[in-house]
Amino acid sequence: MTTAPLLLVSDHVAGHLHVLTVPGGTERGRLTGRHLSEHAGFLALPGGRAACVDDRRGELLVLDPFGQELVEAAIPVAVPAEHLAVDPSGRWAAITTGLGENGEPWSDLLTVVDLTTGDAARVRTRVGEPGVIVLGGGDPLVVLRHREPGSLAVHRFADLLGAPPGCPTAAPHAHLPLPDDGHGDAQSPDGSQVFAATGEGVHRARRAGDALVAEPVIPWGSPARGWYLRLDPRRPALWSTLRGGPADPLRWPEWTNQAWCHDLDADRTTLTELGPGLVFRLALAQDHTAFTRVHPDGDELILLDADGKTAHRVPLPAMDGAPRRGGTPWDGVQRRAVAASPGADWVAVTRGGHGEVHLFDARTGSETARFTLDTPLHHGGHAMLRTRTDRAESDPLGR
């Protein structure tokens, strides 16, 4: 039984999932024929476990990379999976559906699961690409973040889990209005607040019984906005990447990017310039926050220290098939995934199309190892780094 950190790397196109020791790179486990929903991502569960959705088989996979058997459970769910969340205890899970490989959203199915018993139910809610948060406690709630029209819709978990067969329509118990452009969700460490990223800023609401009460919006403090939002399990803070510049995706090399961190206790926001190009998901190491920046003039790993200051900017080797000027940064191109654990100093970055994973020491910014897999890591793949006790499950949303 290993005590070393473990890296989960998925090629969601080829259908491979690798589990590697860090920093040695020994393959500890592998799954084939499993196509991870890249958008729903990996969800951290207590004890170093993880969950993800197999979009081809339509199953929620509970993984125990530190255990004897990698797959702890496989539970049927509705797909294509859009977002995945659990309550802070790691018991009550919810999975929403999105557009998948279709031109517009078409599915209104929501699946809820009791991960302790394996009981599951499916209901119909509203067509779209809803975000989801599960608030725990004696009576857990499912909060769906809808767009156009925007709202936070509140459902009692017990009502959804007790729904009869046949995917009946489930009306929300309560709701709050929200701008139509919501994208990005998080919840407070104690599960009493929900957060939703919009063009206006981060809307927040506090639980009051079986409903939500709106609270003041957290401004971005910039003309740009965040499309991604996550809780920092190391301290009560929210992180995002603010994207500004031209709206035309063909002009993506001109996009501006800022790291946005809001300290919830101090009610203070820190902005850090990252540079132009494509920056999206981030990863949280023990004392650093990691971003990758893709740009035609060269890619790089950017590491911020605990104060939000730039500690290291590390060039990354170019990718064949990388986004180019005159094209979009996501249609038929290679990208990068970044992974870290709040319990370790390692940062892993994939090199899409090359089947490579670069491992860095966040303290020095130096590349420590390079793993070459027998799969190309189409579109950059997806990755998660865990230790058994890193408390990454404090952020109970799929990333």
TrEMBL record:
Residues 380-399 are annotated as: Disordered. It comes from the Bacteria. Residues 387-399 have a biased composition (Basic and acidic residues). SUPFAM superfamilies: YVTN repeat-like/Quinoprotein amine dehydrogenase. This is Uncharacterized protein. It comes from Streptomyces lomondensis.
